[in-house]
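Weekly puzzle thread! Below is a chain. First person to post its structure in token form gets bragging rights.
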Amino acid sequence: METKVITSDIYEATYYFLNGATINSLEVVQEVKREICKITLVDENLPVLQNQYFQGNVSVNLFEFRRNYNRVINLVTIAKRDAKMKLKASKLGGNQ
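Winning reply:
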């Protein structure tokens, strides 16, 4: 059975992604005047991975982690940029 985890922690998301989880969606929300990106990941092994992560019982290949971290950061950056462009477009459209 596939499990879903939603997190805004890039390191946590990267760990799950590195271990086979799929990024299902990215949602940019405003939180205390900042843009936060909520990352939804899905995988049947997420409960085990999540338990290991929060227990601190993980080790990773640093090179692979860095590569996957950069991938996740790029996706988050694109999502934030797209959200900002949509907000700007909606404000421009609302003033006419």
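Puzzle host: Confirmed. Bonus trivia for everyone else. The chain has one domain: 3-94.
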